[in-house]
Amino acid sequence: MKRGTLMNQENVEVLLKNLADRNIEGYWFEDFATAKSKIMSMISIKDSVGIGNSITLKNMNLSYELSERGNLVYDKTLANNKEEVRELKRKALLTDWYVTGSNAISMDGHIVNMDHSGNRVAAMLYGPKYVIIVIGINKVIQTLDEAIYRVRNIASPKNAKRAGMNPPCVDLEKCIDCRSPERVCNNLVIIEGQYEKKRMKVFIINEKDGF
Ligand code: SF4
């Protein structure tokens, strides 16, 4: 994970304030290790945890460490077959906590995600009692339009390739709004705010990871 250089203290405070105005708790961490310690202390051992598919979370080794200490963890990437994947996605929707990455966040606090089947964004929106969204500094984008552009043209082609899919953007390295049967972009979701106070927590990390 590379160190980030994009945000000065003033920008950090602006972003955290813009999240607070949307009823979302923002946290700033210098590195992923510190953020992980915070996650492990926030979540009780008795709590169930759903995990969104994310390179960032994989690199943090979060599922493994939560399971090892006794949490009930629903992580579809640990399934052995398609039926298990489906069940884990469904069970993750009613957990105490849902921990996930995100595709982008704008400086005014819009959280932007593109999903294939929609389970990740569904859990972010409603179901789990609490949601933690972990975002590396490379995904903090100036405006909402630029964040959507990033999600379509950078994150989605790379995620398609990572999932072993082959829509046109994998070769073109840009989105052409395809109708490919292997299209990964079925749900573009912009989180504007939260109804329940304290439910959503966004962890911004001063390191780069994921795409
Ligand atoms: S809509 Fe199609 S071309 Fe565009 S990013 Fe998604 S999968 Fe790729």
Automatic annotation (TrEMBL):
SUPFAM superfamilies in alphabetical order: NagB/RpiA/CoA transferase-like
InterPro entries per UniProt: LUD_dom, NagB/RpiA_transferase-like, UCP020269
Annotated ranges, domain LUD: 13-205
One matching Pfam family: LUD_dom
Name of protein: Lactate utilization protein
